[in-house]
Specification:
Blueprint lengths: L1 E5 L2 E5 L7 H8 L18 E8 L2 E8 L12 E3 L11 H8 L9 H13 L6 H7 L11 H13 L8 H7 L10 H6 L13 E2 L5 H4 L1 H4 L5 E2 L9 E4 L2 E5 L4 H6 L1 H6 L3 H5 L5 H4 L4 H7 L5 H7 L4 E6 L2 E6 L4 E3 L2 E2 L6 E8 L5 E8 L10 E10 L2 E10 L6 E2 L1 H7 L6 H14 L10 H19 L6 H4 L1
Parallel strand pairs: 1-5, 6-7
Antiparallel strand pairs: 1-2, 3-4, 3-5, 8-9, 9-14, 10-11, 10-14, 12-13, 15-16, 16-17, 17-18
This protein binds flavin-adenine dinucleotide (FAD) and FE2/S2 (inorganic) cluster (FES) (2 copies).
């Protein structure tokens, strides 16, 4: 039995744990406010909130219910638009009306749910965060400006919301119904959040699998690992950072350890997918999906990261760069799971940068992406790891370019020569994301961008072109 609270009601269901939350709320519970658009995580029409009680405090995140296996909401609070409705419109709904933020209305539910998720966030509200909260919602009618204005009013109206009494404050101001106050106590009475279950197809967030083979998963019990504590942790010990492979993109974004090591982390991770996808997409899923343009794969390749593969309590550690043998061909047995990823904590003279170009900023996979970690002393390269996606059949660790750069002075001529080595190492193909020639040019520009950004005193664009 899967147990959770749906809006104000306790649910017990014997549905297969791989069936989709979207279908359950619409077809089993007739909560048809949640819409079906793309069923691929792209449009946000199916957005719901999932609330988890962590140390007695609710943590609500917006997710795409079209990619969420119902087993992943065990022990949690699921909120659809019906669970936000009150006698009068909430401020979120009212601002959308006042600013003509809704026309045909198909997307509106998703926007209202996401913006309410922003209100429920335990952090200090900002206008930027209000806009970021709707980065996974698409509207065909309004042109967005009216929705942005509604978001602006919303941000202003949250003035005075403390970080600790979020739910009480929102209930008092009629942003959410009063039943929200009882949810932590009610969740405690449910079966605990499920333990790791490795039986059947292994599903992390499901954001790749439910796009690729949704019809094969919805009628079965799958192996759900998303909430497993042994796969969802961050640890820094003896100058090595180890992350559970079940960490989501949002876990990374919110991790103090990661923020301290990578000051630009927010800018980098905001380029990956959208908030509702990042809230469920895991690192392990990104590595095993083995897309040649996987953003996290490229990010961690440049940290020369290692992965720990586990089977029946037996661990094997390999470099991430040795995980990819060919297109979707992995150095991994059927039964092995990635349990963790580790990398050396960057030292003081080490610099990191990630670049990605896609056809639009959010909700788009890269045409080309690249990351670099480079250490410099006395203006000379003392260590470098460089990676790139979209320029070969696998996410690439650029061995030869790294070897060339080692020991070189940070001079424009050396970087230009390094680009020649880089171009000989890659083999992009022409596809919907661009011609092979375009991708070569793009990687050259992004490679130069690493140096211009990290060493502005040494390089300008004029030096390099
Ligand atoms: C709308 C949308 C936008 C996206 N945008 C981006 C983007 O900008 N950049 C990007 O890189 N990706 C993007 N993705 C792809 C996807 O979100 C990521 O690859 C994500 O990290 C996959 O993680 P997951 O947990 O959802 O994987 P799942 O779908 O759960 O699993 C993917 C594969 O990994 C296996 N698996 C999962 N965890 C483990 C583990 N620990 N050990 C062994 N095997 C495991 C599964 O069995 C499956 O084969 C996007 C996806 C969507 C739907
Ligand atoms: S239906 Fe489009 S994101 Fe779920
Ligand atoms: S109002 Fe029609 S899609 Fe947004």
């Amino acid at each position: 039995m899967i147990e959770f609270i749906l809006n104000n009601k306790k649910i017990e269901t014997g549905e297969p744990n791989g069936s989709l939350l979207l279908d359950f709320v619409r077809y089993d519970k007739s909560l048809t406010g949640t819409k079906i658009g793309c069923r691929e995580g792209d449009c946000g029409a199916c957005t719901v909130l999932i609330g988890d009680c962590i140390d007695g405090k609710m943590d609500y995140k917006q997710v795409t219910s079209c990619l969420t296996p119902i087993g992943n909401v065990q022990g949690k609070h699921v909120v659809t638009i019906e669970g936000l409705n009150m006698e009068d419109l909430s401020p979120v709904q009212q601002f959308m009306v006042d600013e003509s933020g809704t026309q045909c209305g198909f997307c509106t539910v998703g926007f209202v749910v996401s913006l309410t998720g922003f209100c429920l966030s335990n952090s200090e509200p900002s206008y930027e965060d209000a806009i970021a909260a709707i980065d996974g919602n698409i509207c065909r009618c309004t042109g967005y400006k009216s929705i942005e204005r509604a978001a602006k009013h919303l941000f202003v109206s949250l003035n005075g919301k403390g970080q600790n009494e979020t739910i009480q404050w929102l209930v008092d101001k009629a942003f959410i119904p009063s039943y929200f106050k009882d949810i932590p106590a009610r969740l405690k009475k449910l079966n605990p959040v499920k333990k790791t279950n490795y039986n059947g197809t292994l599903v992390g967030g499901g954001t790749d699998l439910y796009v690729q083979i949704y019809d094969q998963l919805i009628d079965q019990d799958v192996g759900l690992i998303a909430d497993s504590p042994e796969l969802r942790f961050t640890k820094v010990e003896n100058d090595v950072c180890t992350l559970g492979a079940g960490n989501t993109a949002t876990d990374l974004l919110e991790s103090y350890e990661m923020q301290a090591m990578f000051p630009q982390l927010r800018e980098h991770i905001k380029l990956v997918a959208s908030s509702p996808i990042r809230n469920i997409a895991t690192l392990g899923g990104n590595f095993v999906n083995a897309s040649p343009i996987g953003d996290f794969t490229v990010f961690f390749l440049a940290l020369n990261a290692k992965i720990i593969l586990t089977e029946n309590n037996h661990n094997r550690t390999i470099h991430l760069k040795d995980f990819y043998k060919g297109y979707k061909d992995l150095n991994k047995s059927e039964e092995e799971i990635i349990s963790a990823i580790s990398f050396e904590v960057p030292k003081g003279n080490s610099h990191f940068n990630f670049e990605k170009v896609s056809k639009r900023i959010h909700l788009d996979i890269a045409s080309v992406n690249t990351a670099i970690q480079i250490s410099v002393a006395d203006n000379k390269v003392t260590g470098v790891h460089l990676s790139s996606g979209g320029v070969g059949p696998i996410p690439m660790y650029l061995n030869e370019t790294c070897a060339f750069l080692q020991g070189k002075e940070l001079l424009p001529q050396n970087i230009k020569s390094a680009n020649e080595v880089l171009q000989s190492e890659i083999s992009p193909i022409s596809d919907v994301r661009g011609s092979a020639g375009y991708k070569r040019l793009l990687l050259r520009q992004l490679f130069y961008a690493h140096f211009i950004k990290l060493f502005p005193n040494n390089f300008t664009l004029e030096h390099l072109i």
